[in-house]
Amino acid sequence: MSVYPVILTGGAGSRLWPLSREHYPKPLLPLFGERTLLQGTAARLMDLPGVEAPVFVCNEEHRFLVAEQVQALGGKAGAILLEPEGRNTAPALTLAALYLLEKDPDAVMIVMPADHVIPDAAVFQTAVAQGVALANAGNLVTYGVVPKHAETGYGYIHRGAALEGGGAYRVDRFVEKPDAATAQGYLDSGEYYWNSGIFTLRADAWITEMRQHAPAILAACEEGMAAGKQDIDFCRVGKDAFLSSPSDSIDYAVMEKTDQAAVVPLDAGWSDIGAWSALWDISAHDGEGNVTQGDVLTHDVHGTLVLAQHRCVAAIGLQDAVIIETSDAVLVTHRDRAQDVKEIVSQLKKSGRDEYKFHRRIYRPWGDYEGIDRGPRYQVKRLTVKPGAQLSLQMHHHRAEHWVVVKGTARVTRGEEVFILSENESTYIPLGTKHRLENPGAIPLEIIEVQSGSYLGEDDIVRFEDVYNRVESMP
Predict the structure, then answer these.
(1) Cα 46 from chain centroid (whole Å)
(2) Exposed / middle / buried, residue 442 (Cβ in 10 Å: 0-12, 13-18, 19+)
(3) How far apart (Å, rounded) are the C-alpha atoms in residues 436 and 468?
(4) Do residues 302 and 426 both lie within one domain?
(5) Does the pTM exceed 0.70?
(6) Backbone angles phi, psi at 269, to 5 degrees
(7) Closest listed residue to residue 225, CA positions, set 114, 42, 93, 109
(8) Domains contained in the chain, number
């Protein structure tokens, strides 16, 4: 029997806008400490004996970012399964279970969302060891966070009878987010836990429960895995089959229906960082109760969270506020209204703006690019290409490009020509010309790209070759 962490990396984290965006979401951010939330999740069980390399389930858009973050952690993914689109947690877990059963019929899965913080790793590991033993005895185990206050933003688990051996209970019921009075009653009773969304269960037990309680999801996932293919380091699930799956959570699909659910209490400082107020809660406060990061100045400010990424941010005479500054957006709200940030994201979507989706810096497998300036028929970008990396061989129907090397060395393919550009040298790529940019050097390549033409959208790309097997119309 081997134990496999299954890390679910879906979710946009819209309440953490403007740091969290659809194409660079909450799990990929270092919100608490130097590691990103995804890296912290992967590292949480890394040093336990008998624990295999983690299996990640992520959106296709995030595949290279997830792979890079795991590599930067010094580990290796057991697999990275790609969902064409998110269908909630039950289909994601089912994909992982089907994958693991192919290699290990006795696989035990420790299922963790990639966007949680658990500061006390030792306590968590002890709880997980208990959960593994319970899972091997046939239970579907979840972890109930011992509540510290009457929280209305979480679902709860009501414990039932104690299980043999002590320290764990049968699940009596799952309950939705309560109002304040009900939450206080839960806290006073001592019988309720916050629902952590973390589970331990055998892969075969999960499939058996899915066959009984959610057969349509199981069928779609089985067809998706059968139609899938290996793509570099990724397992790409069959799109049409998977998209036929109903969308449902682990709780609704199985855990609220099974008679095998067990709960292990967890008191390890857990937080899902569901809003900016939660980050303030778990962070170290200064003498005035403030949490600051970046170039921040305060005067007569109390109980406030201020994160500055690009500019000096000054705050005066504030109480219990949240201020978040990024290169293209600033959020200001009261801490008590932090849950309402999602309403701003909805406004951005409805008005057709990109700030809900992209940061000014866009990450690609070869590096990244950042918008510097834009006009009606031109835009300027700064591209950074990693050593040894290359963009696709491509051409554009509607724009020409000027490239100026400001750092490093570039190998340029332009039509039938291949040549080297050094710092302070430039070239011109005419409209309709096949071209490629590569970094043959040992340091990052930085270039300034000036695009000009009648249409400058990112979908004006025709690819001829691409080492990353990308099929979508993006650079």
Answers:
(1) 19
(2) exposed
(3) 14
(4) no
(5) yes
(6) 80, 20
(7) 93
(8) 3
- Binning pLDDT at 50, 70 and 90, where does residue 74 land? confident
Q: Mind listing the pLDDT tens digit for each residue in 169-194?
A: 999 999 999 999 999 999 999 999 99
- The amino acid occupying position 282 is I
333 and 238 both lie in a single domain: no
Measure the CA–CA gap between 168 and 150, rounded to whole angstroms.
Answer: 22
Residues with Cβ < 8 Å from 40, sequence gap 6 or more?
Answer: 32, 33, 117, 118
* H helix or E strand, kind and range, residue 169: strand 169-175
Nearest residue to 69 via CA among 36, 92, 43: 36
SS3 state at 364 = strand
Q: Which residue blocks in 156-196 are alpha helix, DSSP H? A: 180-189
| Mean confidence (pLDDT) of the chain | 94
* CA 74 – CA 70 distance, rounded (Å): 7
**Which residues touch 129 (CB under 8 Å, ≥6 apart)?**
none
Domain that holds residue 314: 277-344
Q: What was the pLDDT predicted at 475?
A: 42
410, 403 contact by CB (below 8 A): yes
Q: Which of 344, 375, 391 represents a domain boundary (last residue)? A: 344
List of residues 6+ apart from 189 with CB closer than 8 A: none
First to last CA, the chain: 43
| Phi/psi of residue 252, nearest 5 degrees | -70, -40
